[in-house]
Amino acid sequence: MVNWKGKLGNSTNATLLDNDYHQGRYLVTSDTNAPITINFFQLANETKINLKTLRVRYKNKTYKGLPVSGLDNPGLNGEYLDIGAKVVAGKKSTAGQKYPQYTLTIEEQ
Fold first, then answer.
1. Which of 20, 28, 37, 51 could serve as 42's disulfide partner, Cβ 3.0–4.6 Å?
2. Is 102 exposed, middle or buried (0-12, 13-18, 19+ CB in 10 A)?
3. Are strands 49-58 and 61-63 parallel, antiparallel or unpaired?
4. Do 37 and 67 meet the contact criterion of CB atoms below 8 Å apart?
5. pTM of the predicted model as reported, rounded to 2 decimal places
């Protein structure tokens, strides 16, 4: 298990290569004043590998329950949005590199 900050959990036999992990950071901009909705979910493209405990951080607040709507518009200058998730490998997952995929949507309301 790799948590959303890139640390290995106690119940794992996995190894992080060079302590490398991926995180997502996006600059979100808008030319309107409309509130936004953010959604983030896994595509389940890797057998026995799951993204869990998905998190979105926007304007210095972390959101756990997604989607989240009614958020302040980022404006023309923009705001950074960070995403993270716990990566969990099932007991019968196979060895090798894994590339779990996700979808991130940001919509003006």
1. 51
2. middle
3. antiparallel
4. yes
5. 0.77
To the nearest 10°, report the CA torsion of 104, 48, 17, 7: 70
Both tokens assigned to 79:
């705001």
Q: Dump pLDDT digits (tens) for 10-67.
A: 655 555 544 445 568 899 999 999 999 999 999 989 898 888 888 899 999 999 889 9
Decide if 93 contacts 8 (C-beta within 8 A): no
Residues in a beta bridge with 2:
8, 87
Q: Convert 43-80 to b/e letters by CB count within 10 Å (16 or more is b).
A: eeebeebebeebbbebeeeeeeebebeebebbeeeebe
